[in-house]
Protein 1
Amino acid sequence: MDSIILRKEVQERIKEVKEVDILVGIPSYNNARTIGHVVKAVQAGFAKYFPDKKCLLVNSDGGSDDGTTEVVQNTTIEDFQSILLHYRVEPFFKIATPYHGIPGKGSAFRTIFEIAGVLNAKACAVVDSDLRSITPEWIELLIKPVIDGGFDYVAPLYHRHKYDGTITNSIVYPLTRALYGKRVRQPIGGDFGFSEKLAKFYLTKDVWETDVAKYGIDIWMTTTAIANNFKVCQSFLGAKIHDPKDPGADLSAMLHQVVGAAFDLMEIYPDIWKAIKGSEAVPAFGFQYAVGLEPVNVNVDRMMEKFKLGTKELSSLWKEFLSKDVLDFLCESQRLSKEEFRMPDNIWAEIIYSFAMAYHKKIMNREHLLKSLTPLYIGRVASFVIETWESGAEEVEDRIEELCMTFEDKRDFLINNWD
């Protein structure tokens, strides 16, 4: 594979560093406001939990013009006593480099993986650059299972606001759990740990010039690790507080990239997911505790409008592949008020599986197909919000568990109609 580490000063820095024990990557694009906190947390994590290890922070940047990379270079912890450290700490190294390739998080990760490979990093982690809730403990929780437990992939486990992460909760978690049999709660979490072996395995895959390298990289990495029998676990990191997204806002680009990546993976691993029966928990590390969460604004009336308008305009297209029961339900929904409307789990699971099969059979242009899922997704989220408005975090998690079981129960519908 041709090296994508093109910058001379980065190659010189790599020669100077020679080898590292631990590498943490931060992909970024115009995150000057938040990335300084992330850099400090990573450095404190290195110093506090891995003082005898040679550690490197890599900022892989998408061409920021707001001074992101300068913030990375200039941020440091001068006074280690402020984090209650009184012993000598191994030198801490930093590399900030623009990545090459198509714009997106995947290209940033590719640069991080390649630097990790060249420097023979034994354990690596990647964390988002817009995190406001990251602490030094995150670095320990993402790295220790690799170093001490022999795990290859450490997925994050967070407490999130009940209406944050709706793509995960309504599609990606139920689908990947039902298909691949592992209960990885945040398969597109953004913050994860991985082994040297897995990083090198990722680099052998031919995805870096595809749409996966935009939004689909997280689900690709999780699924690739599970489907290829790498040792997977999850670590509880507390709250995920980052720049929030309104689930009723326009998430269609992210939705179609993430779901498209999940459907592409179904094409790669049919022999594996067809043979799975049920699902099992994966080992979880970290002390679980209650956390305060920032509110997420939700406009249910606007979501219902988008759902009803989309249903009216797109029903003729969906007739190609949705069952009569589903189409009848969607038709009936046009007449229901917000208070009366609910989208049952079995209808939603059938919709997702039907879209997966239509994608597989190339019934129509795949991009048009995926974009047509947006109003149905918004309708499902609106239904979930209406149903859980008064519910606490545990009750909401119970509802997501019920949805996952429905996806598992309806697997036969998918398998029997796939070919």
Protein 2
Amino acid sequence: MVKKEFLVTPGEPVGVIAAQSIGEPGTQMVLRSFHYAGVASSIATSGLPRLVEIVDTRKKPATPFSYIYLKGKAAKDFDTAEQIVKKISEVRVSDVARRVLENFSTGTITIKLDEQKMNANELTPRGIASKIEKLMKTESAVSGNAIQIKTHTKKAKEIRMMAVHISKLTVNGIENAGRAVIKQDKKTEEFYIVTNNSSVGQILQVDGVDTSRVYTNDIFEMYRTFGVEAARNTIAKELDIVLREQGINVDKRHLYILADAMTFSGGIKNVGRRGLSGEKESIFARAAYEETVKHLINAAAFGEKDDMRGVTENVLIGKQILLGTGTVSLAIKKEDLAKISEKKAKK
């Protein structure tokens, strides 16, 4: 009889149950994904594509975003929050330029700026030119709302590459933070900032930002900034969000088992052939997943040994696994065994 205080029955195959609990709803998302055909690409990645992103540990999500909560006066005052937005929101040369002209005969690049966009971002032509000079290590001249940059080359390819690079330069805000907008929480009525990219490490250094409540859906960014425990919690949270958006309710303990498995080594590993499944200690367990012949040949060539301690390898050879009733071992006294033998002999 199992005691009531046990959260999980001893010998329960929690990994298998977690895999089934997440995998089965995943098939439902495959079916539902057809209903989202033709939806605008600006909508955040969701459903099966997002689930695949998480378990495959893609280095960068297709639609990254960050939530930045504020503290002090900024949390309740819109004007103060707006000043913080201007410090964070990434503004590139292409965002304030009307045209970028290349002159291959003189080896110069001319940027014609949009005055309205400059005023909206509190920028000046001289300030933008200084930023370009600093980042590109080049010379420039300002005339009205135009900036002329010397490239010191007349090769068309080099001038074109330089023009493209200059257009992508960040002249205000935090690089890779994306565009930032202010939103208000309906319950607490506090203001917070949402960006369409992730650069959490630099955002934390901005005055007025509540560093304890900065969050991004970029798992690797959370890992680099806050460590492996934050990455583990982010994986579980993002999985939960994806499933709930599809109307699927999966116990969070199953999600945490998967998140634990992906991060227990101190880094982040995917669940495929290059991660958890491909790095298992057991040869048969690796071979059972993918690339069967390769694993068996390598094991034979290098004289590897399989101790047969896991579930997969024991199932393959028909041996009892150490789960469920397989965790129980029975012992019998020699005297009792002798009595049983005598009874059998008499029959």
